[in-house]
Write a structure and sequence with these properties.
It is a single chain. Among the domains are: 161 residues, no CATH class; 108 residues; 87 residues. Helix content is 69%, strand content 0%. The chain has 42 helices and no strands. This is Pentatricopeptide repeat-containing protein At3g61520, mitochondrial-like. Pfam families: PPR (PF01535), PPR_1 (PF12854), PPR_2 (PF13041).
């Protein structure tokens, strides 16, 4: 912009230079424009045609005009060009010839300005105006036209030649599209008040918007909206404003509320956004969570007389569907009826689709009946459902397990003229049957679709392959894949993902790897991240860490990164193999890769460190876990407690336990932790302390299980506390805790040795344990 402004500023000086001075390219171009204009030919020869010999007045006037403008003999010029009080008929032709022979833009514009000051100026007004406008028009067709246009404009301003509406609008449009903000503002400010009108303001506002001068454009618009304004907005004003403000680049500079308020102000002048732009505004308000604002705005537009159609209402319904407000969706439909806004098939499609998503299929069917004039809720319409609506309802029925109703609807669909089932229809049905485990029925539909001339697509294949794989028919799924490949239907990454995951699930990793190689090598399908994740997780969980590592390498070569599930599976696998170094390296790699570690990651490593008796690292991991915003879980604490108990550091374990059951703790101990401590205390001979833990356990509402009682029975047996054992047996009955083989083994050996088998038989009466077991 800087070079352009400097060039424009230099033009007046250039125009004042004499004929003998060196002219710039700009001067030459402007002179060429003038010559083209004043010549009668489209492509005139150079030099211009000579003046007629029989017009000595014109010849004399031209000689006088060669002098500097400030030394022109204006009286003589007037007498030569306008010799009588009446304007001669051939004067316009003479003036045109003279202007065409002046050798500079400066002189030409000066001559036109002189003509405007003569007593008969009213007769040449059209000549001056048309000539100047033609100069501007031709300059606009030249290379670098914006620079030349501004140069001509500045010269006209210096000569006092005003712009009329048309050239003013053209200049504003050109400078606005060229993003010449300074020139745009200059022209608008200098336009004569009587020329400035709505068209001029529209061109200026459009230029400001294009130049991202949004707030300045809105100020001009506010002036136009003023009741006393002489430049009231027009439909074009609205088109310019809404086109600009609803573009993505203006989202941050102007809020949705401001656009809505502006639309209502324009609406008071009878100017409204068209249906598409109104829908865009409703959508933006809806997506920003301003549903009530959107609905209120739409009703105000209607009250102002705006042409509200189904499109904006559909945008509103979509918004209410997004927030799952079914009640409001129904209200909008009723309101459309009251306001004589005809809903279309899209309107009903939105409502039915959302109701099906919310699993309110019966309500969706009620709307389906309403749209055909069959509803019993007092509101009905006459809109013929299309294939999309039928498919939506069939899919909704299948998702709630009502496949039989879906098949009945399929038959109704066949009966409606021009509404035949599609591949999507069958895909919905097959998906429903596969999810309910009716694989054979899904296969029948698959074959039926082909018989009806509806070729199954990749989605059809994937639905059936996935269904078979999930319900133990993975070999049948492979056979179907081969069959479809023979028919020319190629699988995609999802097809292989389903099969690979299924084979991993049954520990058939050889077949999983075979399919993986086939996918990438033979079928030419680049495995996606999901395929890699399924294979890596499956191999890691199965302990096949070498194979998992090889797949990890391929994943990274393909440009993917491991996800949290894969990292956790690999870390768990390496911990089980006691490969601490690799496990910790993966832990560090997660941070470098930007994968946020979760509680599973930390708990796995804390348990592993505790198992290795590396309590320093375990404590460090807990601290790191907290620093990352993760709270230790019962699994975290349980791992440490169990590890301390294993090395006979019961008091350390009890310290953690006391922290857990303190009032400030958010991790109350569970049955597993109580059992670990009770068992450890009994093994140390501290049976009374173990028993008190069980009392605390029951008091806190933590239910003891068979393992709890077994640990105490063993401890009491070591101490031969028979009466306490009888109390524990009664408590076990009260707690409805069923004895297992360990309970029977301990009690049988102990009670038979002390001659109390009858007590054992009495204890077993409440359980499904035969006397022969005793």
């Amino acid at each position: 912009m800087a070079p352009l402004r400097s060039a424009a500023a230099a033009v007046p000086e250039l125009l004042r230079s004499s004929l003998t001075s060196r002219r710039t390219l700009l001067d030459k171009s402007l002179l060429l424009v003038l010559r083209r204009h004043f010549s009668a030919e489209t492509n005139p020869p150079a030099p211009p045609a000579p003046l007629p010999d029989d017009d000595p007045a014109a010849t004399r006037a031209l000689r006088l005009l060669q002098h500097p403008e400030d030394s022109w003999d204006r009286d003589e010029l007037t007498s030569l060009l306008f010799p009588a009080d009446e304007f001669p008929k051939d004067s316009l032709k003479r003036l045109r010839h003279i202007a065409g022979h002046l050798q500079s833009t400066e002189k030409t514009l000066g001559f036109l300005n002189f003509v405007r000051t003569t007593p008969l100026a009213e007769h040449v007004h059209s000549l001056v105006r048309s000539t100047c406008e033609r100069i501007l028009d031709l300059a606009a067709c030249e290379p670098h036209s914006e620079e030349k246009l501004y140069a001509v404009y500045r010269a006209m301003r210096e000569k006092g030649i005003p712009l009329s509406v048309k050239p003013a609008v053209d200049l504003l449009r050109r400078f606005g599209r060229a993003l010449m903000v300074d020139e745009l503002n200059s022209v608008f400010r200098e336009i004569d008040p009587e020329v400035k009108n709505t068209h001029v303001c529209n061109a200026y506002i459009d230029g400001l918007f294009r130049s991202r001068q949004t707030r300045e454009a809105l100020k001009v618009l506010d002036e136009m909206l003023d009741p006393d304004s002489e430049h009231a907005p027009s439909d074009l004003t609205g088109e310019i404003v809404f086109s600009a403000l609803l573009r993505r680049e203006f989202v941050e500079s102007v809020t949705d509320d401001e656009v809505a308020e502006l639309a209502l102000k324009l609406g008071q002048h009878g100017i409204f956004p068209n249906s598409v732009k109104l829908s865009q505004l409703i959508t933006r308000l809806s997506k920003s969570g301003k549903m009530e604002k959107a609905w209120d705005f739409l009703q105000k537009v209607f009250r102002l007389g705006g042409p509200v159609e189904a499109g904006p209402c559909n945008a509103l319904l979509t918004g209410y569907g997004r927030v799952k407000d079914v009640k409001r969706m129904n209200e909008v439909l009723v309101k459309m009826k009251e306001m004589n806004i005809e809903p279309n098939v899209v309107t009903f499609g939105i409502i039915i689709n959302n109701l099906c998503k919310f699993r309110r299929v019966d309500d969706a069917f009620e709307v389906f009946e309403q749209m055909q004039g069959k509803g019993d809720r007092g509101v009905s319409f006459q809109v013929k459902p299309d294939v999309v609506i039928y498919n939506t309802l069939i899919d909704g029925l299948c998702k709630v397990g009502r496949q039989r109703d879906a098949l009945e609807l399929l038959e109704k669909m066949r009966q409606q003229t021009g509404c035949s089932p599609t591949t999507i229809t069958y895909n919905c049905l097959m998906d429903g049957y596969c999810k309910s485990g009716e694989i054979e029925r899904a296969r029948m539909l698959f074959d039926q679709m082909a018989e009806e001339g509806l070729g199954p697509n990749k989605i059809s294949l994937n639905i059936l392959v996935d269904g078979m794989s999930r319900h133990g028919q993975v070999n049948s799924a492979v056979n179907l894949l081969r069959e479809m490949q023979g028919r020319g239907l190629a699988p995609n990454a999802k097809t292989y993902t389903s099969l690979i995951s299924a084979f991993c699930g049954v520990n058939n990793f050889a077949k999983a790897m075979e399919l993986f190689d086939e996918m990438s090598n033979e079928s030419g399908i680049a495995p996606d991240a999901i395929v890699y994740y399924a294979l890596i997780s499956g191999l890691a969980l199965a302990g096949r860490l070498d194979d998992a590592s090889r797949v990890v390498s391929k994943l990274k070569e393909a440009g993917f990164s491991l996800d949290i599930a894969c990292y956790n599976a690999l870390i768990s696998g390496f911990c089980k193999r006691n490969k601490a170094t690799v496990a910790y390296e993966l832990f560090d790699e997660m941070e470098k890769a930007g994968v946020k570690r979760d509680a599973v990651t930390y708990n796995t490593l804390i348990a592993f460190s505790s198992k290795l008796k590396d309590f320093v690292r375990a404590r460090k991991l807990i601290g790191q876990m907290k620093s990352e915003g993760l709270s230790p879980t019962v699994v975290t604490c349980g791992s440490l407690i169990h590890a301390y108990c294993l090395i006979d550091e019961v008091e350390e374990a009890m310290k953690i336990f006391e922290e857990m059951r303190s009032s400030s703790s958010r991790i109350p101990p569970n049955t597993v932790i109580y059992n670990i401590l009770i068992d450890a205390l009994c093994k140390k001979g501290e049976v009374e302390r173990a028993a008190s833990l069980m009392d605390d356990m029951i008091a806190r509402g933590v239910k003891p299980n068979t393992n709890t009682f077994n640990a105490l029975f063993k401890g009491l047996w070591e101490k031969n506390l028979l009466n306490k054992a009888f109390e524990l047996m009664d408590m076990m009955t009260e707690q409805a805790c069923k004895p297992d083989y360990i309970t029977m083994e301990v009690l049988t050996d102990w009670l038979s040795a002390v001659g109390k088998l009858e007590k054992l038989k009495e204890f077993l009466k409440g359980y499904d344990v035969s006397a022969s077991t005793v």
